[in-house]
Amino acid sequence: MIEGNGNLPACWRRVRLGDVCQVIPGRHIIETAHNRLAQGVPYITGPSDFGDIQATPTRWTETPDVMCAPADTLVTVKGAGVERKRAPRSKRNLPILVL
Predict the structure, then answer these.
(1) Cα(5)–Cα(98) distance, rounded to whole angstroms?
(2) pLDDT value of position 99
(3) Which 3 state secondary structure label does DSSP give 54?
(4) Judging by beta carbons within 10 Å of its beta carbon (0-12, 13-18, 19+), is residue 93 exposed, middle or buried?
(5) What is the mean pLDDT of each run of 10 residues along the chain (99 residues)?
(6) Domains (ranges, CATH) in the chain?
(7) pLDDT at 78
């Protein structure tokens, strides 16, 4: 990890994240709009859903607002999960929450 304004390897360059990818913030879904009964599509809520390699949902929703695609990288900046990155487990789009 490079701290602060550390030197980058010669083959790297410093860029703004939004210039090299699309950053889409997730949305919070109110408690009454998600469930733990696997009804609807998986709802990735944050660090608790981030396993060692892939996201593993603990909640589902029938009213998704923002969806991620199978090849997307999910990043959480919520609580103890700050900067954890995972791939969605599903091969289909998933609703996401990224705070």
Answers:
(1) 26
(2) 36
(3) strand
(4) middle
(5) 64 83 83 93 82 82 87 72 52 47
(6) 22-95 (3.90.220.20)
(7) 63
Where do the DSSP E strands lie in 9-95?
Answer: 34-35, 41-43, 54-55, 59-61, 67-68, 74-76, 84-88, 94-95
- CA torsion, ordered 83, 87, 90, 92, to nearest 10 deg: 100
Cα(54)–Cα(9) distance, integer angstroms:
29
Beta sheet of 74-76, edge-to-edge order: 54-55, 84-88, 74-76
Amino acid at 46: G
Where helices occur in the chain by DSSP H, the ranges are 17-20
Q: What is the pTM of this model?
A: 0.60
**Other residues' Cβ atoms within 10 Å of the Cβ of residue 55:** 24
- pLDDT score at 19: 85
